């Protein structure tokens, strides 16, 4: 019997579910802290990042008619937040990855490609990213604003206990973000609305493409293949009963990453964690994504001034990044080869993701060859 989920036509947009309103912001607890932290680390316009993300939220809702998330590339974001990356390198990485995944989507051979990257290596990248973000959350933000950081951590803990014991939805990230907004309103007043920062065509140089390939592109590829494409396809098909193919996801990732990077924004992708977040808050149709996009675009109107971002306490960013890091660490520990995964994390924190990826790939390949030929 063929159990493949059916494609339900256009019902994903025309039939709006009650939970779509709450579910529209289900993944904001992941994307907003990453955008905020990237803006603080690089000076990139938060308004422009939110504008482009909002546009792609709407496009994704129309194309998929299901709550397929749009979020920053996590490997790129983690390295950027840790420091030492230029905006040109970010754009170069997005352009390379955009072209790569668009062509891979056109090839129709995503399944064969995924089999060549060991699962332990992908988990190692997740664990390494989680530890790098954890370090940034504590050192760069938390310790510099300790009272607010500890207060927000208490909120995270309370919601975690509520979710475990009473099955309450985890709204901690949205509550913490709301606290940050309240602080801005009290200390600086209502932000003045204005036109979002307009896109500017970005053209990286040769050296930026070379550096981006090593430091940003290499560690991002396996994470995008495993999490943004294959895990997203599997989970969304299961939850929403719609067949969403890896090749189609690769095409939209390529399009949104390339266009956002060329226009001065941050490269973006999909993600299985975002699917779960939207679903958990009640999203069931593409309308949730359209509404979420409208909210992000409205946010880009009020976050045109860097002073508004600076008014949000650092402890708020620290707690939000901590929540994201814990989620990555949790997934990273679901490995079938702890030695490879943990060794990659140990290498990545002091040296970098690229070195950890290469080392993990080599070790996993050697172990696989040895196990295959062991008598």
Which helices and strands appear, and what pairs or packs with what?
Elements: H1 11-14, H2 20-23, H3 28-42, H4 46-64, E1 71-72, H5 74-82, H6 87-107, H7 110-114, H8 119-142, H9 146-166, H10 172-188, H11 206-240, H12 246-262, E2 268-269, H13 272-280, H14 286-302, H15 306-310, H16 314-332, H17 338-348, H18 353-373
Helix pairs in contact: 3-5, 3-16, 4-14, 5-8, 5-11, 6-11, 6-12, 8-11, 8-16, 8-17, 8-18, 9-10, 9-16, 10-16, 11-12, 11-13, 11-18, 17-18
Major sheet, described briefly? 2 strands, antiparallel
Give the overall pLDDT as a whole number.
Answer: 86
Amount of beta strand: under 5%
Low-confidence stretches: 1-12
Cα-atom radius of gyration: 20 Å
The 3D shape can be described as: globular
Description:
With 375 residues, the chain is an all-alpha fold. It has one domain. Helix content is 73%, strand content 1%. The chain contains 18 helices and two strands. Strands 1-2 form a two-stranded antiparallel sheet. Helix 10 runs antiparallel to helix 16, helix 11 packs across helix 13 and helix 17 runs antiparallel to helix 18. The longest helix has 35 residues.
């Amino acid at each position: 019997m063929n159990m493949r989920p059916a494609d339900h036509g256009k019902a994903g947009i025309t039939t709006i579910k009650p939970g779509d309103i709450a579910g529209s912001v289900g993944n904001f607890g992941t994307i907003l802290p990453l955008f905020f932290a990237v803006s603080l680390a690089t000076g990139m316009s938060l308004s422009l990042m939110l504008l482009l993300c909002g546009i792609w939220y709407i496009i994704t809702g129309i194309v998929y008619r299901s709550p397929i998330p749009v979020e920053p590339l996590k490997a790129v974001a983690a390295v950027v937040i840790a420091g030492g990356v230029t905006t040109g390198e970010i754009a170069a990485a997005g352009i390379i990855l955009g072209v790569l995944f668009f062509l891979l989507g056109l090839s129709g051979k995503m399944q064969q490609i995924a089999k060549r990257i060991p699962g332990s290596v992908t988990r190692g990248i997740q664990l390494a990213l989680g530890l790098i973000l954890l370090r940034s959350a504590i050192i760069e933000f938390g310790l510099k604003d300790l009272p607010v950081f500890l207060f927000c951590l208490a909120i995270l803990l309370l919601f975690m206990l509520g979710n475990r014991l009473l099955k309450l939805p985890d709204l901690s990230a949205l509550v913490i973000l709301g606290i940050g907004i309240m602080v801005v309103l009290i200390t600086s007043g209502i932000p003045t609305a204005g036109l979002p920062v307009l896109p500017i065509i970005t053209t990286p140089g040769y050296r930026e493409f070379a550096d981006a390939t090593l430091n940003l592109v290499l560690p991002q590829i396996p994470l995008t293949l495993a999490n943004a494409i294959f895990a997203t396809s599997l989970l969304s098909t299961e939850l929403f009963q719609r067949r969403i193919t890896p090749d189609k996801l690769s095409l939209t990732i390529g399009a949104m990453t390339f266009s956002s990077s060329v226009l001065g924004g941050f490269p973006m992708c999909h993600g299985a964690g975002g699917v779960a977040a939207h679903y958990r808050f009640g999203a069931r149709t593409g309308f949730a994504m359209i509404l979420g996009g409208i909210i992000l675009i409205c946010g880009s109107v009020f976050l045109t001034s860097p002073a508004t971002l600076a008014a949000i306490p650092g402890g708020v960013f620290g707690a939000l990044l901590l929540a994201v890091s814990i989620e990555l660490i949790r997934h990273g520990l679901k490995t079938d080869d702890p030695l490879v995964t943990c060794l990659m994390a140990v290498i990545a924190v002091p040296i970098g993701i690229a070195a950890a990826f290469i080392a993990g790939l080599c070790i996993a390949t050697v172990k696989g060859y040895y196990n295959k030929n062991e008598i």
